[in-house]
Design a protein that fits this description.
Length: about 325
């Protein structure tokens, strides 16, 4: 299939471009390069485009005539969303509306959406399945939930078919070493810890040590970026087989690790010690987020290649 990968120059998107190419698809990356890197787009064509630019989007849809769209171009920093909600609602909601409208206008009716565990807010039970109540506690999570609701309305009104993937914590690098996480500044826990282990930063900060967890630090479910990308390929296959059924899936490994546990794992694997500083909580951080991945395993036949946190960390070296 010919696939538009929106945000394909970013961390997850660039891994998706590689995996989709290896799966035999014709990939075209659209990215405004606000946070992405064009040299990370290793396969297919690249088009410089912002999803808020509906006119240019329309020209690109008419030029390439994609069969499906995978959407990775959201802003995704919880803390920043608390201090600059306009940026998040404008790009994540208005930008996605621009993209969806252009898809409908050009009869491109298959959509894979990168959603987030942030739509659930503070969990009422663990692990979190697809039916868990949705009560996001930050503008980032709210923007993702708004898009999920929009997708349901677009399916009813226009016949758009979609798969929405609620990511828990994407982590790891391309095992072949072609791609890595290159955020500037880096905000994700695992690469920050690795930078400290490699001497690239002075210390690692723990934000909050008084959560209701075994050691007081936040617990998260980590899923390797390649396993995420594989899920998107399976999601596209699902849409091709089940055109009358859109679906939502939670993507994680079903296991949680606290911040302190992840730090210890990195120290053990690398044999490096580094300074850890305990600071106050950040706004908008739930204490525990662990996915139930049973639906994805059953329906999409997903199999994790990186189910252990040690294997994920080893791809960061």
């Amino acid at each position: 299939m010919k696939i538009f990968i929106i945000g394909g120059a970013g961390y997850i998107g660039s891994h998706m471009v590689k995996i989709a190419h290896q799966a035999g698809h014709d990939v075209i990356t659209l990215d405004n390069l606000s946070t992405g890197h064009q040299d990370a787009v290793l396969y297919g064509e690249f088009e410089l485009c912002d999803i808020l630019d509906t006119a240019k989007l329309d020209k690109l849809f008419k030029k390439h005539k994609p069969d499906a769209v995978m959407h990775f171009s959201a802003y995704s920093l919880v803390g920043e969303s608390m201090t600059d909600p306009y940026k998040y609602y404008n790009n994540n909601v208005s930008g996605t509306l621009s993209l969806l409208k252009t898809m409908i206008d050009n009869d491109c009716m298959k959509f894979i959406f990168s959603s987030s565990a942030a739509i659930f807010g503070n969990p009422e039970y663990i692990p979190i399945d697809e039916n868990h109540p949705k009560n996001p506690i930050n503008p980032y999570g709210k923007s993702k939930l708004m898009v999920e609701e929009i997708l349901g309305d677009f399916e009813s009104a226009y016949g758009l078919k979609y798969v929405s993937f609620r990511y828990f914590n994407a982590a790891g690098h391309d095992p072949e070493g072609d791609l890595s996480e290159r955020h500037d500044p880096e905000t994700h826990l695992l690469p920050i810890i690795m930078q400290a282990a490699n001497g690239q930063r002075d210390a690692v900060s723990i934000f909050g040590n008084d959560y209701e967890t075994t050691d007081g630090t936040c617990v998260r479910d980590y899923i390797h970026v390649n396993d995420l990308a594989d899920a998107h390929i399976k999601g596209l296959e699902y849409l091709n087989i089940n055109e009358s059924h859109s679906a939502e899936f939670n993507l994680g490994n079903g296991t949680g690790f606290s911040v302190k546990e992840v730090i210890k794992q990195v120290k053990d694997i690398t044999g490096k010690d580094f300074l850890v500083i305990e600071e106050g909580r950040r706004g908008g951080d739930p204490s525990i987020l662990i996915a139930s991945d049973e639906k994805a395993k059953k329906v999409l036949k997903l199999k994790s290649n990186f189910s252990k946190i040690e294997k994920i960390i080893q791809t960061l070296n």
